[in-house]
Structures are given as structure tokens and as C-alpha cells.
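Retry 2 of 3 after timeout on previous attempt. Resubmitting C-alpha cells to design endpoint.
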């Protein structure tokens, strides 16, 4: 182990004995009392020295045997210690890709703050490289989500959409102006490649009519998550349960995000069989407003404008929030969009959250479990995908 005090947490002495690591209350930690010699020892936890060398240098400045281990134990318990060599073999492989790692260092610093165990940030960052996410939609919201996920180290980001890019699809962080007229899916794939911090090994496929591949070759990675971000914002605001049937059946987590008119939505994140799905959302809305299904049928079948309302700043905010929720899930946490939806509208932009209850009259089966079973089932699926 090569311990280091997490560098992303800024350090400040509150007085001569107490030092605070971190600025914002969410992750700030106060440590003390700290004497002068121990304060000098803290500067040696820089990730360059291993434990034997740290113990030697501690003795050289007059600290007793065992002091390094005692201080390190306190700091580790407080979530302030990282391991510069931790994270396992996938992390070691990522360290060899120096160009990619340099691109991801800011993300790594953030992950190290969020996940307190030594090496936890690096382990999660490396795990992203083996994951596969599918983004359905390459408009202002979907393309930006795909670019952010790719740039954040997700190893494979597939984007599905039809038609050709229009001038109003162009957005900073999304499809560029020179993509207008190209097939949306093709333009989005190029965007994903440009956004990636580096190349990752791709799965081998058997050539048509060729011999079987070596059994040791990596298989096609399973989908870790589907992000539904259609250009038609209505399909995110009021998703069609039929479109999600295959994901429910296969147990594939999926997250909805989009902009309809001047309202942005993120969620729900659906854990099949564990949290409310699009069907639960539709049934709940129809119960509160009996004429809702009739109006929804008219909106879905009616003539759509060439360019639907999708404010650029609002779309960017929705894409950023959706990507952050997706990454949180991929890293092993359950974001607040799990079984819930965040919504905001122009011009005031106050985000509000609505919990979506699982319905007994929905065939997804989420309401048929107890809360404990639901949480356990969702966690098992999530841990498996997080690697």
C-alpha cells in the first residue's frame, strides 16, 4: 500500500490542533487534536512512499514506533486515505494507459472523495471500462449523454436513432454542426469515439463463415444500462410501457431522460422487478387523471412539428443530470432517480422530485415484493453489473 491523503480534499487548519479536510459539508472531515510532529507526518502521506519507508521517516522525525499505523488507521476510518497502487488488476491496466488516465484524473479525484475506502475510486473508474451502455436517442439530450458517458470512461456506449441530423440537433457537447445531413446514429458514434479518453479493447466476433474464436476471447459485454433519451420528449415524459417490455423481461436497468416543450425530466431509473416501471407510471397517472390515456393517444398519433421545443440550456442541464445519475448507478450506488423522477420547467428551473410507486396491477412484478426483498434484489443485480 502507498497511502495518500485524498488530494481532492482541500486542507485547512482551524486552529493549532484541528485540521479540516474538505470544503463542502457533504464530504468535509475534521481531524484532531494533531500535534506538530503528526502534522509533519501528514505531508508524507503522498502516495509515493510505502509503509516501510513511512515508518522509517517517522522515526527520523522523532515519532514512536506504531505512530504511523495509528494515524493511518484514524485517517482511513475517517475516509481520508487513498491507495496510490490500489484497485486491483483492472486499475493497474488503466494506469498503463497514461494518456487515458490523464484525461480521467479529475473524475478519479471526485470518485476518491465519494467512495471512502482506499483504492475505491480507482477500482470504480477502471470498472467503467468494461461496461456497456446503450443510449436511445441522438438529439440534444441523448447525444450529450452519450458523449459524457464515453468521456467519463465507460468502455462502450452504443447510440441508436434513425434519420439524419437536423440543424436543431446541433449542441455544444452533442452533435457538431458538420454532422447536419449525416445519419444520426453514425454522427453519434463518431461523437462517442471523439469523446472517449482512450481506446479500449473491443470484443472479438466470429467472422462470417470463419472458424470459431478462441474460447479465451472476451464475450460481447452485457448491457449495464439503457438510457432512453428520445428526441420526441413526450416519449420520455410519458414512456410507452410496451417499448420497455424486453428490458423488463431481461432484467436490464433503464433510465428515462428528455425535454418536452419547456420541461425537462430525469427518471425514473427502473430496476426491473425491484422498482416502478413505465407501466406503473402510466397506471398511476391514469388513476389521478382518468382522461390522461385519451389525451396521450392523441398526442402520440397527432402530427409532430419539425422542430419540437427543446431549449438548449435546459437540454444540456437534463443531459448532465441524467449522465451523473447513470454514472452513479454504474459505480454501484442508487441515485435519487431510482423509482422516482426529477422534473424542472422554464423559466424558474426549480427541480422537484416525484416518487413513483410500484403498482400491483402492473405486470412488472415490482409491487409483489416486500420492501426488503425489493432492495435486496435490486442490490444484487446492481453489484453484479458494477463488477
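Retry 2 succeeded. Sequence:
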Amino acid at each position: 500500500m502507498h497511502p495518500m491523503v485524498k488530494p481532492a480534499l482541500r486542507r485547512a487548519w482551524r486552529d493549532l490542533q484541528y485540521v479540516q479536510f474538505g470544503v463542502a459539508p457533504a464530504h468535509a472531515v475534521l481531524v484532531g487534536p494533531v500535534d506538530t510532529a503528526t502534522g509533519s507526518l501528514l505531508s508524507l502521506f503522498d502516495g509515493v512512499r510505502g509503509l516501510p519507508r513511512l515508518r522509517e521517516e517517522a522515526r527520523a522525525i522523532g515519532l514512536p514506533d506504531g505512530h504511523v499505523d495509528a494515524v493511518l488507521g484514524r485517517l482511513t476510518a475517517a475516509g481520508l486515505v487513498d491507495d496510490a497502487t490500489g484497485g486491483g488488476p483492472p486499475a493497474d491496466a488503466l494506469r498503463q494507459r497514461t494518456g487515458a488516465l490523464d484525461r480521467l484524473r479529475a473524475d478519479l479525484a471526485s470518485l476518491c472523495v465519494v467512495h471512502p475506502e482506499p483504492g475505491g475510486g480507482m477500482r470504480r473508474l477502471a470498472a467503467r471500462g468494461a461496461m456497456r451502455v446503450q443510449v436511445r436517442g441522438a438529439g440534444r439530450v441523448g447525444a450529450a449523454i452519450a458523449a459524457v458517458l464515453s468521456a467519463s470512461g465507460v468502455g462502450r456506449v452504443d447510440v441508436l436513432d434513425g434519420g439524419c441530423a437536423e440543424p436543431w440537433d446541433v449542441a455544444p457537447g452533442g452533435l457538431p454542426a458538420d454532422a447536419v445531413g449525416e445519419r444520426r446514429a453514425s454522427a453519434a458514434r463518431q461523437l462517442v469515439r471523439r469523446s472517449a479518453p482512450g481506446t479500449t479493447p473491443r470484443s472479438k466476433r466470429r467472422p462470417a463463415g470463419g472458424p470459431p474464436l478462441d474460447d479465451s476471447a472476451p464475450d460481447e459485454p452485457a448491457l449495464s444500462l439503457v438510457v432512453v433519451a428520445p428526441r420526441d420528449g413526450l416519449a420520455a415524459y410519458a414512456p410507452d410501457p410496451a417499448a420497455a417490455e424486453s428490458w423488463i423481461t431481461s432484467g436490464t436497468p433503464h433510465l428515462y431522460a428528455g425535454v418536452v416543450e419547456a420541461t425537462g425530466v430525469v427518471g425514473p431509473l427502473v430496476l426491473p422487478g425491484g422498482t416502478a416501471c413505465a407501466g406503473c407510471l402510466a397506471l398511476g397517472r391514469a388513476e389521478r387523471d382518468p382522461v390522461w390515456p385519451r389525451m396521450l393517444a392523441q398526442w402520440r398519433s397527432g402530427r409532430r412539428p419539425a422542430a419540437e421545443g427543446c431549449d438548449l440550456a435546459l437540454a444540456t442541464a437534463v443531459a448532465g443530470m441524467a449522465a451523473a445519475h447513470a454514472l452513479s448507478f454504474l459505480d454501484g450506488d442508487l441515485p435519487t432517480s431510482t423509482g422516482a423522477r426529477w422534473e424542472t420547467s422554464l423559466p424558474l428551473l426549480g427541480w422537484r422530485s416525484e416518487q413513483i410507486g410500484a403498482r400491483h396491477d402492473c405486470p412488472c412484478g415490482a409491487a409483489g415484493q416486500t420492501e426488503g426483498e425489493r432492495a435486496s434484489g435490486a442490490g444484487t443485480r446492481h453489484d453484479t453489473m458494477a463488477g
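Attempt log closed. Residues 203-217, 370-387 have pLDDT under 50 and may be disordered.
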